[in-house]
Amino acid sequence: MRIGLISDPFTQVAFEYEDAIELILLSPKYWRLQLLTSQIDILFVESCWQGYQGLWKHKVANYRDRDRDLTLSKITAYCKRKKILTVFWNKEDPIHYNRFCHNLSLFDVCLTTEASLISQYKRQFIHLKSVELLPFFFQPKIHNPEMGERIKELDNRILFCGGLYQQEFPERAERLKMVAKGLNKQKLVVFDRFTEGHNGWGNSSQIERWESFIYTDSKKHYQSGRLHINVNTCDGSKTMYSRRLIELLACQASVIDITKFKKNGVLSTFVQQVSTEKEFQSAILKEAPHPDYQYLKDNYSVSCVVKMLQNFLN
Question: Which residue ranges make up each domain of the chain?
Fold first, then answer.
């Protein structure tokens, strides 16, 4: 299956390791030539912020202070003429529903990370042939339980791989600060890719900052340390979780989740869920749940996405 892809780098890498597909990484400038010279079976576009080499910045998301870019409209119109199935995955649901939902007027199929939005998509975009759930997935060739290289300096440490997002998600940030404070003498190790701006940890004295790592090296970091912290960008969702969480679990990492859930999420049985500093301090003394890798692979790996796309074509 040959896929015309517009996505951020992590999704691209996950697909690239899959033998069953061939990717055409579409450029906003040369897409017409690419599609003329390489006939694709399906167009797969995700709610990306930057896209391949940053070429899709401001061309997929909707911004109040910018005119809407028409490149996607032209590509989907071409695909419609050529009878090529078009699929849009809003991986930013439900937080950024309004930032990306306008794109669905152009596509045949809608995929979302938020199950509760499926009926809304169907009502708002009645032309859609299908609306399905697609949570974040992992690539088993990168993230798996087989023990690889570990970082010895991180033995017995508690880690968090991500930014603080104090301005955008203040409640999330306060929970992360609660974790850092709850460790008392031992500092939380943070892999923070933001060296400036509002998303990073700034000059926090409660953490030990390490340099961010490249995506294909993430397994080494996920399998290091004693425990990992996870927090999702939204509370209360059953199906929306961070990409980091599914990858950590695939690597058999022990995870404490500080997301607020109304009910358990689809991956809750594989983590310890805490909401207070006292619960956190208790959790770090307990043995973490053991993730069922085969279950994760059968339900949340990239091969499941490929099967879904093949079913759409059939």
Answer: 2-134, 152-297
Mention every residue, 6+ apart, whose C-beta is less than 8 A from residue 154: 189, 224, 225
What is the length of the chain?
314
With beta carbons less than 8 A apart as the criterion, state whether 136 and 246 touch.
yes
pLDDT given for residue 106 in this prediction: 98
As averages over each run of 10 residues, the pLDDT of the chain (314 residues) reads 97 96 97 97 97 95 88 98 98 94 98 98 98 98 95 95 88 91 87 73 81 94 96 90 97 94 85 92 91 97 98 94
Identify the pLDDT of residue 197: 61
Residue 198's CB: how many other CB atoms inside 10 A?
Answer: 12
Fold of 2-134: Rossmann fold (3.40.50)
Task: Return the HEC string of the chain.
Answer: CEEEEECCHHHHHHHHCCCCCEEEECCCCCHHHHHHHCCCCEEEEECCCCCHHHCCCCCCCCCCCCCCCCHHHHHHHHHHHCCCEEEEEECCCCCCHHHHHHHHHHCCEEEECCHHHHHHHHHHCCCCCEEEECCCCECCCCCCCCCCCCCHHHCCCEEEECCCCCCCCHHHHHHHHHHHHHCCCCCEEEECCCCCCCCCCCCCCCEEEECCCCHHHHHHHHCCCCEEEECCCCCCCCCCCCHHHHHHHHCCCCEEECCCCCCCCCCHHHCEECCCHHHHHHHCCCCCCCCCHHHHHHHHEHHHHHHHHHHHHC
d(CA 171, CA 175): 6
For the segment(s) 152-297, the CATH number from 3.40.50.2300, 3.10.450.50, 3.40.50.2000, 3.40.50.150 is 3.40.50.2000
